[in-house]
Amino acid sequence: METYWERRRNEESEKRPTKKNSQKENKKHPYKKVRK
């Protein structure tokens, strides 16, 4: 069930990304920032 909600949240985030969403993604995937 969590995966279903997470997937839906990710899709909504990609549809209209916001500063708040960006921060949440960075916190969830800090390695992404480091790789950048």
TrEMBL record:
Compositionally skewed regions (Basic residues) per UniProt: 17-36
Compositional bias segments (type: Basic and acidic residues): 1-16
Protein name: Uncharacterized protein
Region annotation (Disordered) ranges: 1-36
